[in-house]
Specification:
The structure is a homodimer of 215-residue chains. Chain A contains seven helices and eleven strands. In chain A, a hairpin with a 6-residue loop joins strand 3 and strand 4. The first copy, chain A, is globular, with a radius of gyration of 17 Å. The mean pLDDT of chain A is 95. The first copy, chain A, is of the alpha/beta class and 215 residues long.
């Protein structure tokens, strides 16, 4: 790779995006020595995250980077509005044509679906939204990360870190990805075992389903 | 807790902070039903992260929230400058006096140390910086999360998620924390086992140490 131009990586922002969907992959991919990461948003001005507390000031708009090598599409409560935003969907559809990898985190998969990129493909998303992937002609898989080259989809929110490490390995080799994992000290030790509906207590699963329905 | 005022949580931003140190805890704590999270920075204007690509626009400055219930101090390449910033260190020292919990992620522990909060306490930080904790009179522990009430410190970068789930359990009970873990689908499956110097290949550990020295 020496002497080659850097890998250009575009991470999409939009109002209502989940902050960790963005920053998990961001923190991994900005540590790739051979990559140039940019954070893009439609139009100009600030972007507010899904929790409504964090405000970003993206320096680039979508039209400034029509042809990244890698696309990262995060999810979040704002994804349905984003799926109806022609500027976003058309940018994604066009950029995918020349990208080496198009990826999503959590319900970012719905944006890939809206751009017509998931037809016939294996894909995943947040466990609460998995069934909705069939609306886009995808074949849902309840897995942490699904690679259906050149598309990689990740499960809910925190799975973006695992997805990005997988992607880093594909882009720069296993040793580069392992070094990034170590620099992030990503040796997770959750204090509970409730990270998946298969391992969480049934009453916790019911509780999260109920909250999701009223949102 | 019903009827009580919400738990006020302050997450500190400063130039050169590591984005995931901020957003890991942010994503957990904004999901606490009984909490109000605010993102604070010294002065006014934008804040740039340690990778130099992401720009935040914090809406509050430190003097606007002198007495949060919970303080979260992230780390990053900018932490040394932050440790020399009197506004930050004095805010932290004063705010700690009335806080229920004061916490750090990664090298954010150095800020706690600079404010004199770690003397005689068990604490952790990024594995590369662990020895430096003794400069502040702390007793270093190579653990993911160290609770020495009312201070909680976390290991490098990604450990902020585990720290925040631990904190969420203390603030709102295990069931609330488990529901947050499930909503984030935090069932991590790193594609490699290189997240700790104890499990990474020796050549990867050497490589990360070498990169850290030149930075």
């Amino acid at each position: 790779m020496s002497g080659a131009s850097p890998i250009s990586i575009a991470i999409l922002l939009y109002d209502g995006v989940t902050a960790l969907d963005v920053v998990g992959p961001y923190e991994v991919l900005t540590r790739l020595p051979s990559a140039e990461v940019q954070v893009l948003a439609p139009g100009h001005g600030t972007v507010r995250d899904g929790a409504g507390v964090m405000t970003w000031w993206p320096e680039r708009s979508l039209e400034m980077l029509p042809d990244p090598d890698v696309i990262v599409v995060p999810g979040g409560p704002g994804v349905e509005a984003a799926c109806s935003d022609r500027e976003i969907v058309e940018w994604l559809r066009a950029a995918h044509q020349t990208a080496r990898w198009t990826t999503s985190v959590c319900t970012g998969a719905m944006l890939l679906g809206s751009a017509g990129l998931l037809r016939g493909r294996r894909a995943t998303t947040h466990w609460l939204a998995l069934d909705r992937l069939t609306d886009y002609g995808a074949r849902p898989r309840q897995r942490r990360v699904v690679v259906d080259e050149p598309i990689i989809t990740a499960a809910g929110v925190s799975a973006g870190i695992d997805m990005a490490l997988t992607l880093a390995g594909r882009l720069a080799g296993d040793e580069a990805a392992q070094a990034i994992q170590l620099s992030l000290e990503y040796a997770p030790r959750p204090p509970y075992t409730s990270g998946s509906p298969r391992t969480a207590p049934a009453e916790i699963v019911s509780r999260v389903r109920a909250i999701a329905q009223v949102r």
